[in-house]
Structure formats: structure tokens, C-alpha cells
Design goal:
The structure is a single chain. The chain is an alpha/beta fold. The protein has 2 domains: 228 residues, Collagenase (Catalytic Domain) (3-Layer(aba) Sandwich); 38 residues. It is 25% helix and 15% strand. It is built from 7 helices and 11 strands. The strands form 3 sheets. Strands 1-2-7-10-6-4-5 form a 7-stranded mixed sheet. A two-stranded antiparallel sheet has the order 3-11. A two-stranded antiparallel ribbon has the order 8-9. The radius of gyration is 20 Å and the shape is globular.
Amino acid sequence: MDRDWFYQDNNTKPKRIRRQRRRRSTGRGLRLGTFGVIALVVGLYLTPTVFDRYILAVALPHLPGSPVPPRGVDASDVPLGLPPATNGSTSFALHESPDSSQDFVAYDPCRPVHYVVRPDFAPAGSDGLIEEAVAEISAATGLTFVYRGITTEAPSEDRETYQPDRYGKRWAPILITWTSPAEIPGLEGDVAGLGGSPYAHTPSKPFVYVAGQVQLDAPDLTNIIQYPDGRDQVRAIIVHELAHVVGLDHVDDPSQLMHEGNNGLTALGDGDRAGLALLGTGPCVPQL
């Protein structure tokens, strides 16, 4: 069970920020055409390891109804950016890796991290806050974020990680939405936001985050933004959720923005920055 992040202001009821639970990427059902049938038949005569690594991994993206995009879309030979130097603080926590041999999961630094925004229900006075929060996470990680525009896609706990009809033949972008408990029941009560990413994986290669989501409780944030420092507080909430998206977990240190009991902090702490910088050094995986 994920822990909660409390937003406390002297003039209001505590608000909580929780990240979305991480889930494996399942994608859509695979519909096999002739080529797929041939590949499966050949696979019967090979070991599962050889089939998974060298045949299915190459053939799957080209099959009708594939749940994954063609390999290496937008991939560069080297990272597109580098994280800044930090003071070496260890006051941060990372999401648990699904593989004991991989210390942490991150977004591929050799590809741009695309994101889209559904602007519906955005609080008055929130213009520019998402862009500012994304810029802060980009600067702290060295990851290159690319805004792909607005979308009509609704938030979902079972979001497809590959949506070629909507976004083209690449992994779906990070989806940032202003929403409500009526649409996302997980926002009920004093929960003001959710954030997280599923991961993708190909045999013998590292896990990589793709297609994350930030779901912001518009009614709660509409109230918060009216405080004297409301824009700063809402921006901090978005930064907190985006930090979950790229791989940071909650930390016990109350001086960090990623602490679960935030008391009005609006800036990343030294530990937050050290963790985000580490997450900017993930592996490049052009095979995905």
C-alpha cells in the first residue's frame, strides 16, 4: 500500500498527495496475422529464450494490433541531456525495482519524454503551472521533455501504454489531467493528486518507464490556488507528482518535497534533487 503525502495549510483541511500504484504494462490483446502464426510455429522448434529474445521481440511490433511500438522510435545513441551535479545527499527514496539485478527503473535518457495535457477543469489562475513543473523536473533529471499538445484522452487506471491511432507509433506520452473524484475514485476524500508510471521490458534488457500519468484533483487545487501562495503550492504538488512519475518515492525526511507529510514546502530539497539526478542516469534501451 502506498503511503500518503499530506499538504498542510493553517487555513484549510489537510490535503493528501498520493502516487498511483505502479503496474505492469499489459497492452491490448494481440491479433495474430499470417506472419505472427509463422513466428509462433517457428518458436515451437526453438528454446523459449531464443524465441523471446530474437524472434518475438523483433516481430511483435509489426503484427496487427500489436501492444508495443516499433523498436527504437526517437532513440539517440547518447543521452539527450545530463543531470546537474548535486551535493550527494542520500535523503531520497526510489520506487522498488521489479528486477533485483536492476537498482532502479527510469525513463530512457536517450529519448525525449513526451507529455500531453488534458486542460479540462483546470483551476482559474493555473496557466503555466504544468509547464513550470515539467521544466523543474527536466532540469533536475537532465531528461528532455517535449510537449505534444492538448488531448481529449481521459485518465484511467488501466491506460493503454501504446495508442498508435491517437499518438502515433511510439509509446504513449505522459498524460497530465485535471480531474475529480467523480472520474477518478482514488481522489476521493482529501487526496489531491496521483502520479506514477508503468514499465516496459524486453527480454535480457533493463526495465524502462513509459506512459506515466499525473491526475490532479481540480476541485481541491481550485481551493488551494486561492491562498496567497496558492500558485506556488499547486506547482509544488504537480512537481511532487511528476517526481513520482519519473521514479521518486516518499522519503522520511520532512525537509524534502517528497516527504509524505509536507508542511507547505514549495521547493525541491537536496535529497529530492540528488534522487532526481540519479534517475536521469538510467539506461538507454533502443530495443524498446
